[in-house]
Amino acid sequence: MPKGRIIKALSGFYYVESDNQIYQCKARGKFRKRDQKLLVGDFCEFSYEEGSDGYILSLSSRKNELVRPPICNVDQALLVFSAKEPDFSSILLDRFLIMIEAFDIDPIICVSKMDLSQKDEIENQLRPYQKAGYKVIYVSSKDKIGLEEVKKILKDKVTVITGQSGVGKSSLLNALDIHLNIDTNQISKALGRGKHTTRHVELIKMYGGYVGDTPGFSSLELTQEPLELAKAYHDFRELSHSCKFRGCLHDSEPYCAVKEAVEVGKISKERYDHYLMFLKEVKENKEKKYG
Ligand code: GDP
Ligand code: ZN
């Protein structure tokens, strides 16, 4: 059986890429019976005969799954934040990082509009993130800075591009010479701005990898459980094995490895303070929900 990847879903058809060819397929009825959804990004086995539609027969298990847009097996999220206009905000960045890491997707921080900023100043603000293990890249679509680095990051990976509106996501895609790869109409779709009534989901081939639709976080409200929040911090998660208490929320618990790391400067105080603020927020949300 040929194997491939679903790269587009539209009007009941799934488009499967296999060996650089696209096959138009339908899903076998068993998926519907089991209420099993096929997603863009799924790896599948399919059958195909020349001159007719193919059939998707089975799916491989997924490493992650986004809800809006429904895409799975995403490798990374390029999180675009502008240095200026709007001003860089570490608290907003932290919120985005939690959202992304909660989906088990690797975030890459991309600071845009560097032509408008003092380089040293913004690099100082980002240093704690690099120290926490995040990859940070600096770009200016206007002055064509950092574009090669973005291309390297996109290569052979499935990437979603996200960030507040106005930070320069479309400008970045345009500056990447994307017209060589996809037309502008696809760009607007890739950014979720298509005026099409039939909304479809698609992965767009780019530099050997794919770029997916922008995750539309309807709000940046944190809806996870307190422990899930703690686990969305990859560095806290690693240290938590050394906390005395299992399920430590790194708050008022004694012998907490995360708090110790903050004390010795291994974790930035600001990162931790924002975490405590978010923890309070999710606890309050939980109380509101369950009384
Ligand atoms: P999006 O909403 O994230 O897609 O942002 P856009 O790409 O539409 O850009 C929003 C605004 O920022 C536009 O007015 C762009 O001209 C401007 N902009 C985007 N990239 C840059 C940049 O690298 N430098 C400067 N100075 N302005 C930029
Ligand atoms: Zn702890």
Structure commentary:
By secondary structure, the protein is of the alpha/beta class. It has three domains: 3-61, Beta Barrel (OB fold (Dihydrolipoamide Acetyltransferase, E2P)); 66-213, Rossmann fold, CATH 3.40.50; 226-290, Probable gtpase engc, domain 3 (Ribonucleotide Reductase Protein R1, domain 1, Orthogonal Bundle), CATH 1.10.40. It has ten helices and twelve strands. The protein has helices at residues 29-33, 90-102, 119-131, 147-154, 169-175, 184-190, 226-231, 234-239, 257-263, 269-290; strands spanning 3-10, 13-18, 21-27, 43-47, 54-59, 76-82, 106-112, 135-138, 158-162, 201-202, 204-206, 209-212. Helix 2 (90-102) links the parallel strand 6 (76-82) and strand 7. The radius of gyration is 21 Å and the shape is globular. It starts with a strand and ends with a helix.
Short description:
The chain has about 290 residues and is an alpha/beta fold. It has ten helices and twelve strands.
Features:
single chain, 291 residues, OB fold (Dihydrolipoamide Acetyltransferase, E2P), Rossmann fold, Ribonucleotide Reductase Protein R1, domain 1, six-stranded mixed beta sheet, five-stranded mixed barrel, 10 helices, binds guanosine-5'-diphosphate
